[in-house]
Structure formats: structure tokens, C-alpha cells
User: Fold Glycosyl transferase, group 1 from Rhodopseudomonas palustris.
Amino acid sequence: MTMTITTDTRTGHDRIGETDAASPQPTPARDAGAAPARRTRVVVIQTQAENAGAQEISRLVGAGLAARGYDVHNLFFFRQSRSFDEPAQTTYCAARRPGDPLSFLRFLGALYARIRTLRPDVVLTFQHYGNAIGGIAARLASPAPVIANQVSARLTMPAWLRGVDRIMGQLGVFETITVNSHDMLRDYSRYPDGYRRRLQHVPHGFDQKHATMSKADARRQFGLRPDAVILGSAARLHPLKQLDAAIRVLAQRPDWRLALAGQGPDEARLRELADGLGVSDRITFIGEISPEQVANFLACLDVFVFPSLAETFGLAAVEAAHAGVPVVANDLPVLREVLSAQGEPAALFVDAADPAAMANAIARALDDDALRAQLRRAGDGLKSRYAVDAMVDEYVRIIEGATQPAARRQGAGRDR
Assistant:
């Protein structure tokens, strides 16, 4: 069977496989004299609670749906970060990451029980473990349709989990599977039709970040040198983010410094690498920052480096480019797709595994005024390409399409 991609003429977003004759519209309000309509209840299931890209997207989707009148509840598997700014109506299924079989079983029981208690009309799951574990728990605990959000690159998923995800999609555990780039659509093009026809392309929206202080004040706040050339990145400290590439660049340029905002399991290795290269005195590990701090962190930087090995979108790089910070990114097809506006690239792309090439690209971003102006122009165009309202509108359309066929059955079950 040939894979087809159709474009929604209203939104410009793409859907792979079969499409309905008409897009469903939000359920109309009742007459003034009738009993008030019960709000559609949406349960958002995420993995760990931390300040990272996938959590930012689920936060924006949940807030947008709540603003449109949906009753949104957030279930996190556990809290990873103390600085995480939790949305309203948030529940944690475990105090920390389950570390043994018994605590994992307790976590599963808490997740199942909470879904049963909430009686959702629709469930949105995020990230690969959120989709697999949350999707199965939701289907066991509730008849509500499950909308899975593929916000994790397949390279980040173990082979067995990719197999589980494939089976769940084929069997219809997921009503819909959203992806956030055309590159991801191509990535799933060889999957069976039962999986592919559930795929819908919904580009991420992003919250525009505006600094509240000058560059000098921002550097003072984050403890950075006021007169230095500062490269920076905001990312989870994980091997797939390939932040060692940014550290290796410092060995070639003794006049540059690096600021890394984020936390994660790769921090010890990165520190050891910096010590071995003799550049540890020029690296500042900022730690995790909140979404509200991102703009001021970006204001500190002369160049944003994004050497990641695998992405589905690259939200941090999009935010940096829109903020007017020159971006030097690893040359991935998905980043070339996402980091562009009206045919103009919003970043410099380079093989991040080549320290000399990486250093040369950074030097160009620092020294070429015309290039920086072009990158700022393209970066500014990202705000219209990735509007939060457009993203939320797509989720409204998907939710209404998923819930309307089951509305009578769901309503009857809730009223008993």
C-alpha cells in the first residue's frame, strides 16, 4: 500500500494515511436554559517531571486546552526535579523513579487507580515510556481513546520498546499518534499500514521567550564572565545530546567559554572530559533552569550550540534562534527541516563530531555580521511557523474527532 500525506487546508498541518471527509468541530454549547454541559476531561500522562522539551510541550498543550474550556489533569510517573513548576491539577504516581520490582508495581497500581478515579474522556500520552506504560494503563482503566505523542527520537528508544510501540499502534491501543516533523513521518514510512494510518503531523508550538534583563545583568545572574565570548546550550545532560562536542571545541579556542544549562546522567562524564582536556575552568554547569529563566539564559550567550545526535524537533534550538542568538547545530535532516523559515535557514549546520568544523562554524557566527542578520531574520520567522495556538487547535480537532463517536458511551459511564 502506498503511503500518502494529505494537508489540512485550514491549518497547513499534515496527516499520513486515511482522512475523514470533514474535520470534526468542537461540541456546541447547550442552550441557555439547559443544564450546563460537562467539560471534556483530558488526562495528560508524562514520564518524569522536569524542565525539559517534552515536558514543555505537554505543558503548553495542557494549558492551551484548559484555556479552551477542557478539564485538564496531569499525571506524572514521578518528580525528577525539585525546580519543576508543575501545572494545575497535577498528580505524581510515585515519589521517585521506581528502583525495584515492588516499587514499580506500586507505581503501576497508583497510575491505574488514578486513571480510574479521573474517568477521562480522552488520554494524551507523551514520550516513549509515557506512551507504552501510560497507554496500556489507560486502556485497562478506561474506555477513553488514547492519543500518543511521539516526541522521542527512535534512536533514544530501546529495540524492545520500539517493538512494543509498533504492536500497540497496529492493534489500535492508540487512537491517534502525533509526530512533530516530516522527518518523523518518513521515519515511520515503513511501518505497517495499521500503524501509519494513525499518524498525524502536528508541529510543536513554542512559548516566545523575552529576556527581562540586559546581557550584562543576565551574565551576572548566572555567574558568567561579563567580557568573555560565551557559547551555551540548554539541554538534558545525556550522551545523545553530544555535549562533549561543545567541550572539545574549547580545547581549540582558549578565548571561548561554555555555559551548560541542564541536568542529567552525563554530567560526571562531561566534567571528567573537561578536566582531561584542561578546559574545566572555562565551563560553567548552570544546572536545571525553569522555563521562565530560559530567556535570560539565552541573553547571556554569543552563540547557542546544539550538537545533538537525535531529535524529533529541537525545541531548545528553535527558542534560541527566535531569541536572536546565532545557532550552530548538528547537521541532522530534522533540524534542517525545523530550523528554517520561508526557505531561509535559521541556523548553521555542521558535523558536530568534527571539532575543527564546529569551531569554524562558531567563528563564522561570531564574526560575520551579514550572516548573523540573516539568521536573526529567519529565527524571527519561526514564531509564525510554530505558533502555540495552531498546535493547540490541532489537538482540539484530534480530541473532538476521537471523543465524539464515543461521547454517548462515555457520558453514560460517567453518570452511573
